[in-house]
């Protein structure tokens, strides 16, 4: 059996369903639990979409985290009029989910979760700084978006870190 065949066999209906639910939760939390900030050229958006994203990545791993981030938040951009941002969001948030999942896969504990979310924060800040610089052809203005990105990940961390192990145990039952 080739490694490709083995990888295909590892994906089952349950994994697909869980990933779909994680994508939907990320989309809904991004779309309906948010505050638009009067900053940056197009305004910023602080939302709770990172909460289900981080939970999905920590509990189910890098694949589910990547899909939840890329498709959940990418679809939000497409459906909410932020279409220009969708390709950037797809890559940036997909990478955030993958990274959180990769760091915490096979590693359980508060410190690993903190490290994973800190890495996601760096990806978000740098990724959206570059995206905004490209979109607006301005490399100074994107600095105004950094505080909103930090708040967004910080709020998600404050929610996720104390509950992730409780959620993981509840899911295992």
What ranges have pLDDT less than 50 throughout 5 or more consecutive residues? none
State the secondary-structure class: mainly alpha
Order of the strands making up the biggest sheet: 1-2
Strand content: under 5%
Overall mean pLDDT stands at 91
| Radius of gyration based on Cα positions | 16 Å
SSE pattern, N- to C-terminal? HHEEHHHHH
Number of strands: 2
The helix content, as a percent range, equals over 70%
How many helices in DSSP terms?
7
N-to-C terminal Cα separation, in Å? 33 Å
Shape verdict = globular
Can you describe this structure?
With 173 residues, the protein is mainly α. The protein is built from 7 helices and 2 strands. The protein is globular, with a radius of gyration of 16 Å. The chain starts with a helix and ends with a helix. The model has no long low-confidence stretch (mean pLDDT 91).
């Amino acid at each position: 059996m080739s490694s490709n065949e083995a990888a295909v066999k590892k994906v089952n209906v349950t994994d697909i369903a869980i990933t779909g639910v994680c994508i939907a939760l990320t989309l809904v939390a991004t779309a309906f639990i948010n505050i638009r900030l009067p900053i940056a050229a197009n305004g910023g958006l602080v939302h709770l979409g990172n909460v289900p994203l981080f939970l999905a990545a920590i509990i189910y791993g890098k694949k589910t985290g990547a899909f939840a981030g890329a498709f959940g938040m990418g679809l939000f951009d497409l459906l909410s009029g932020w279409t220009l941002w969708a390709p950037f969001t797809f890559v940036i948030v997909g990478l955030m989910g993958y990274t959180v999942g990769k760091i915490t896969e096979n590693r359980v504990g508060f410190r690993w979760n903190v490290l994973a979310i800190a890495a996601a924060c760096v990806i978000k800040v740098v990724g959206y700084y570059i995206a905004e610089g490209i979109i607006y052809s301005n490399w100074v203005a994107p600095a105004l978006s950094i505080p909103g990105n930090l708040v967004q990940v910080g709020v998600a961390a404050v929610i996720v870190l104390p509950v992730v192990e409780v959620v993981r145990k509840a899911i295992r039952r």
